[in-house]
Amino acid sequence: MDVTTEVRARRREKPQLSCHPCRKRKVRCDRIWPCSNCSSRGQGSLCPFPNPSVTAPPGPRRTIGIPHLQDHINQQHGKTVTDSTQQSPLTPATGPTPPSSSGSTLSVAETGTGHTSLSSSFSSSPCSSNAGSIRIKQSGASYVSSAHWTVVLANIAELRDFVEREIDEIESQAPGDDILATAVDLRLLYSGCPPGLTLSSVLKCLPPRPIVDRLVSRFLTSSKWAPHRGKFLREYEEFWSDPPAALIVWVGLLYTVMSLSTKYQLCLFDTNGAFSPARHRPDTLQQQTREFQNTIELYLEKAVQCLFLGRYTEGGPYVVESLTLYFIVEVFLCTDINVGLYTLVGVLVQLAISDGYHRDAKHFPSISRFEAEMRRRTWALILQIDSNISSHLGLPRRVLESQFDTAEPRSLHDTDFDDSTTELPPPRPETEVIAALYTRTKLRLISIGNRVTDLLTPPSPYTYADARNLIRQLDAVHDAFPASLKWQGFASSIAVPSQLTIQRIWLEMCVLRGKLALMSKFLLAPRRQTWRICAIALVCIDAATKTLEFQHFLDEETWVDGLLYQSRWNITATFMNDFLLVASILCFNLQITPPHGEEQQHQQPRDGPGSDSRETGTDSGHDTAETFKDNERIRKLLRMSHPNLTLTLSSQGCRHPAGVVWG
């Protein structure tokens, strides 16, 4: 070793006391992080020291303004490329020490062109997770995807604290309580908010507590859309201890619960003139029904006003839950499912996505186990709403399966966990009939149904093999139904609750609907392969016959004193769509296979579900404008194909509330 080498070796052993930028500039460093030279250049957060013991002086932490953000990015970009071969990763120190740059360095090979190392560094995502980022604040959760600039910068260690500080400062400078200050460009979304609206004016419309207690009790005991009962009851007691201190959106949730519970109470009345409570007289039915409807409208109006006051478009606690229940009430009150509801689904879905409901909470350790499970339940309900409304209107879904990874909710009772739970218990066995088990089964069936819809809607036509493949998947899901949710025949309905019977029928009809939708196309194709057409016709006729049997059963058992009378409000437009699909397919089959001979033309249809559908086709409880038009089309088709067929289609009034309800 020569003398020059020895001198250089001894110099490297000397501790470096100045920061790296000052050492490169060959200027004097005050050796306090961040040093005055870097701070004066707006680069205080990019002032790394090799000595981890260097700490910041006491006093307020220096912050850097947004105008310097581009300088920070440029500086960091240049540092990671030019210094990656010169500096080893810095060891972070405890306390307010310089942030570490490890993990954000882009390695470039020292030999060759460097293309191999550069391309290999992009073989995996630079982010620690592709799930994005959720900020948990007092005002709620805020989600951004992994492509958002804040997430990208947060993965650069030197900029992570800077980004967090700037976001907090921006949020702390938000305007006051005037909703027009933040929603001036969203007048369409806030146009229903009256001027001078306050929480106190909303609370004035709240009935006495005994009435609210009864409404809440009915909702919690009869609704499958109820929030976690234990938590809701605790919040309910806290609300009555100091109503003006309550969160405004939670008050809106309470009004929505009251509205839905009042709707349940209205469902006890039969709209044909008979009703369940014996203490009421028939001559007061119309007046009492009108009073119920006015009360529902009042509660719903206050729920909407609470959403306005809570700036629902910005998300936050209880916003998605309150908006979901509000949507269900609106569907109950609608006579026809229209595009307005489809638009409202879009608002609901976008708010849920902005709060991160579409990403499973396992990606975000800051979310508790309890909150994670409740978010899964809420997202499951949103998926059901989206699928049912879009399929009813024949429009694309708002949520695609490639856009979310939220897990199914566990089969748990509300008593199995609460907000103090640190680890969720194992799911209940499938022999127990609980709401979450039915939800899980529906989600699996809806997933296959969405694939059926996707196959039916692309520009290029699907093949017979594609249809058979999906039918096999439908059969596999059907065979995997829990024993407690499998349809076991009409006779078995005597010994089970009416709600469970309707759930079993709904699951069966989803399978039949998928088969009919897949195979009906091939009935229209040229008949070149007789054996295939026969197989398709058999599948369609079998599914149609079973659907008509369910229709006949539902029609018979939803009358007064029927097996399903107490749950008749669940027999809604979802079922009606299935019946109309079956009627359309059978009409087409009649058209392409006309009866032969004069004797068959005058022969009356046989008794049974098929013939009963002539009388029950419009008597399923949905005497709406949409249903009336559909029934008229079916009448016309039947007359065209079989002029001598006796038609006894009739509309005997609406026996069930209109709308789409999910089993």
Automatic annotation (TrEMBL):
Biased composition range(s): Low complexity: 88-107, 117-126
Amino acid composition bias (Pro residues), ranges on this chain: 49-60
Compartment annotation: Nucleus
Zn(2)-C6 fungal-type domain segment(s): 18-49
Extent of Polar residues compositional bias: 72-87
Assigned keywords, A-Z: Metal-binding, Nucleus
Chain positions covered by the region annotation Disordered: 40-126, 406-426, 596-626
Compositionally biased intervals (Basic and acidic residues): 596-605, 612-626
A GO BP annotation: DNA-templated transcription
Cross-referenced Pfam families: Fungal_trans (PF04082), Zn_clus (PF00172)
An annotated Gene Ontology molecular function: DNA-binding transcription factor activity, RNA polymerase II-specific
Gene Ontology CC annotation, any one: nucleus
Signal peptide: none
Coiled-coil region list: none
PANTHER family: UNCHARACTERIZED TRANSCRIPTIONAL REGULATORY PROTEIN, ZN(II)2CYS6 TRANSCRIPTION FACTOR (EUROFUNG)
Protein name: Pyrrolocin cluster transcription factor fsdR
Organism of this sequence: Corynascus novoguineensis
